[in-house]
Amino acid sequence: MNQELISIHEVAKTVTEAMDTRHSIREYESKEVPQEILQRIFTKALRSPSWKNSQPWKVHIVSGEKRKELSEALTNAAKSSSPTPETGWPESYPSDAKKRMFDLGMKIYGVAGIDRKDKEARDEFMLRNFSFFGAPTAVFITSKFDLNFFVGIDLGCFLQSVLLLAREEGLGTCPQAALGAFPVMVRNALDLPNEEKVIMGLSIGYPKANSDLNRYHTPREEANDLIRVY
After folding, report:
1. Domains, the chain
2. Which ranges are annotated Polar residues under compositional bias (predicted)?
């Protein structure tokens, strides 16, 4: 799809349009998202499928002063300690995936005006995860389930529902594994029980206009390379 034809500032009128226009937004307007819109998105997302209707998700929507407090705690933790996620992050990938990941990093840093060799600038860019890229609302997804492959699939289905429903409302999102990097900080700030695992989160809000970062749309492999019809 021609990158110039992609609009992220209008509502998506169909599922296809939401799929075509959805991509990770890394700069947001300060405008707050009305609570009724957030409630509508996440209530609809509860219709997502799950193994035997197990519904392994819980959702925590954080705005205002609580968002600011949590952002400061997570940023300070990221500056002073290593991540301690409750779900193991992948450590190895096939060679073709590694190439796509490297290319993505190079292009994102390029759009952001960061030299790949500038570690200080790269680290500062990474820390923006914990200010939710300026989004007025952060969302944390938690679960009391023992984590396994199928619970992961269920949570992925729920997350995709949220991303597409947000586009229907004219909103941008950025799903972030980084928001599960310091679960103790999140648990303390949101007063969660110990058995409730902090899996990941997302930033959500109105995409900032005239943003080069927001105009960047990651490519996908050709359908013929990934899909076989028998």
Report:
1. 7-90+131-216 (3.40.109.10)
2. 73-85
